[in-house]
Amino acid sequence: MSENKTGKYLKYAIGEVMLVMIGILLALQVNNWNEGRKLKIVEVKMLENINANLIATKENLSRVMRINKNTLEDTQLIQNVIENDLPYSKSLDSAFASIEVWESPHFTYTVYESLKSKGIDIISNDSIKNEITFIFEVLFTTLVDDYDKIEWAIYESVVYPTVSKFLYNYGRSVNRRRVLSRPNNFEELKNSDEFLNMLGMIIRNRQFGLRVSTMLDQTLSNLIEMIDKELKK
């Protein structure tokens, strides 16, 4: 009789323990679900902010690329005229004015810094996460710290002194955005290794900047598309 009571008590006790454990597990599962839902909301908001930043960056980059491509073509035109000993044309005045002109890339890092502060692993899609890191840590850095700083260094140490020596400014171009420039002595300029070397430095660095800019532009397009698809899930 006593053994039956003990057995029933043990079964009851075990049942109670199992119910408590099931309750705890359910509570943990609900809590984990709530935490996961909160993290997903944060992730979605972060992706929306990053996408808006990338779209604005792409628009700015298009303007930078357009201006730098135009000034590169002007510089190459002058190089071609000199190297082929072609006659001077007044249309070159605008091209000579472009020698000192380029557009610096400016990028906003606020959203990326916010992402890093929250933890970049909040982005669940590894491909998106890797592309974001590549854009902000590699491509942005290359354009700002490598390309643009070299442009400034070339301008201050080579371009400005050389241009001041060989060219003079006058009037304004048709769009009135910059003055026109003309050689003091075109024949002397054509025979100047100093001037040709300067043109070569500008062309090489600007070509490098446009290659990186093109890669960035393509990567931005791909990432914007990836994020759009992710947000539609």
- Number of extended strands: 2
Structural class: mainly alpha
Report strand order across the widest sheet.
1-2
- What overall form do the CA principal axes indicate? rod-shaped
Tally of alpha and pi helices: 6
Q: Report the helical percentage.
A: over 70%
- Strand content is under 5%
Q: What is the element string, with H for helices and E for strands? A: HHHHEEHH
The averaged pLDDT comes out at 88
**Kindly, what is the distance between the CA atoms of the first and last residues, rounded to a whole number of angstroms?**
63 Å
What summary fits the major beta sheet? Answer: 2 strands, antiparallel
> Radius of gyration, rounded?
32 Å
Uncertain stretches of 5 or more adjacent residues? none
Key phrases:
two-stranded antiparallel sheet, 3% strand, single chain, rod-shaped, 233 residues, mainly alpha
Question: Would you summarize the structure shown here?
Answer:
With 233 residues, the chain is mainly α.
Describe this structure in words.
The structure is a single chain. The chain is mostly helical and 233 residues long. Helices cover 79% and strands 3% of the residues. The radius of gyration is 32 Å and the shape is rod-shaped.
